[in-house]
Amino acid sequence: MRTYLHKMLVFFAILASIFLFFACSNPEQEQGVSSSSSEANEPISSSVIVSSSSAVASSSSVPTAVSSSSEISSSTSVESSSSIEASSSSSARLSSSSSGVPIVPFSCDRASLESAVNSYLAALEAGDYTKMPLATGAKYYENDNTAKQKYSGGKMTYDKEVAFGEGLWKTKIKPDFHRNLLDVQECATFTEIIVANTSPQYVLGARLDVAGDKISKITLVVTKDGDWGFNAKSYLSASSSKREDTVWAAPGYIPREELRAAAYAYFAYFGDKTVEVPWGIPCTRVEGGMSTGDGPNSTCNIGVPDVKVDAAGITYLADIDYGMVVLLLYFGGADSHMFKILPSPTRYRYIHTLTAMKQSDYQAPK
Q1: 155: left (phi over 0), alpha (psi -120 to 50) or beta
Q2: Residue 307: what pLDDT?
Q3: Given this model, what pLDDT does residue 70 score?
Q4: Is residue 14 part of a domain?
Q5: Main-chain phi, psi angles of 202, to 5 degrees
Q6: Alpha carbon of 18 to those of 9, 23, 24, 63, 179: distances in Å?
Q7: pLDDT value, residue 11
């Protein structure tokens, strides 16, 4: 019996040795399986940028940053990642401001640019610039009504840099109405903001530049009581009327260069009445609150000054999907002229202007 047990122990020892030999004969393969498994379960770093030709083609945007809680399980999810929207599937990449407005990593598509504006509006209402995602070294400008028209580095200067937390940031501002122009090519926005039912009253024109998934620059045209034509309640009544707002919100694709040319023609006409301008009828012009009327025969070709405006001092943004273009310039003060242009044939429908110039400082052209 003892001999039998001894033989069985020897037999199992031999089997165990054979098993261990084969198990250890390919350590690299075993190590590779372990590493692959670890990588599959490891969350993607927030610095990972996902891009693909199909994603770019479908969204016309720059690659979208993926948050640390997102995972990619297949090539299909990689290709569709640029179209992730603020839904339950992307809730991990959303954060919220104190006002509850979701903030997503920004890129240069319409949804992201609109989110950038929403974060700015939430910060404005809270009186706290930290409520929006700012790029390192972000700049903030408010118009300087005492500035003189001058060139600096080949560009016209009409605003001054203000430290975040200073200027309007000292006041909580609750907008009654706003309208966005989104320029996906420039990765920038322009927003008309009307504050008419709280004190002090403002009508603001805010340009946001977006870079590296954050707001890199804010340039603000600030108009208030005493500025050219200022009347916030009249401006609100005109801008938020059902008729006007419906037209502004109507899609109207116009090529970028056509929008730019149409807007620039407006100022070229000031100094040269032979310039062809796409005047439309009806067309309504609102200046700070003053309006030329919105009847069926209203025109914007009224009260146009005879003064030469240097086009070199004008910058612009364009929203080609909605036929909107804004010109930013120095015109006695920081100024914005935003146009709603209708296609086929191209013609003006609405022009909204803000000029941060005291009405008492106005001097008629000689």
Answers
A1: beta
A2: 87
A3: 32
A4: no
A5: -145, 155
A6: 14, 9, 10, 53, 77
A7: 52
- Phi-psi sector, 242: left (phi>0), alpha (psi -120 to 50), beta: alpha
Amino acid at 170: K
pTM, whole model, 2 decimals?
A: 0.69
CATH number of the structural domain spanning residue 198: 3.10.450.50
Total domains, the chain? 1
Say which residue the tokens 């012009």 belong to: 285
In degrees, rounded to 5, the angle at the alpha carbon of residue 297 between the alpha carbons of residues 309 and 257 is 40
Structure tokens at 73: 């399980």
C-alpha dihedral, 74 to 61 to 120 to 259, nearest 10°: -160
Q: Is the peptide bond before 105 cis (omega within 30 degrees of 0)?
A: no
Residues 235 and 227: beta-carbon distance below 8 Å: no
Contact by Cβ (8 Å): 173, 195? yes
- Residue 366, in any domain of the structure: no
* Residue 180 near residue 322, CB atoms below 8 Å: no
pLDDT digits (tens, 9 = 90+) for 231-278: 999 999 999 999 999 999 999 999 999 999 999 999 999 999 999 999
Residue 146 tokens read as 């005492």
Task: Determine contact, residues 205/288, Cβ cutoff 8 Å.
Answer: no
Q: Tell me how crowded residue 41 is: count the other CB atoms within 10 A of its CB.
A: 8
Domain carrying residue 229:
90-361
Please check whether residue 275 lies inside any domain of the structure. Answer: yes
Is 199 a member of any domain?
yes
CB-neighbour burial class of residue 12 (10 A; exposed 0-12, middle 13-18, buried 19+): exposed
Query: Given this model, what pLDDT does residue 308 score?
Result: 87
Q: Token match 């100022």: residue?
A: 267
- Give the dihedral sign, CA 249/255/194/187: positive
Stated length of the chain: 366
Transcribe 166-230 into DSSP letters.
Answer: SGGGGS----SEEEEEEETTTTEEEEEEEE-SSSS-EEEEEEEEEETTEEEEEEEEEE-TTBTTB
Low-confidence ranges of the chain (pLDDT < 50): 1-6, 9-10, 18-104, 145-149, 151-154, 156
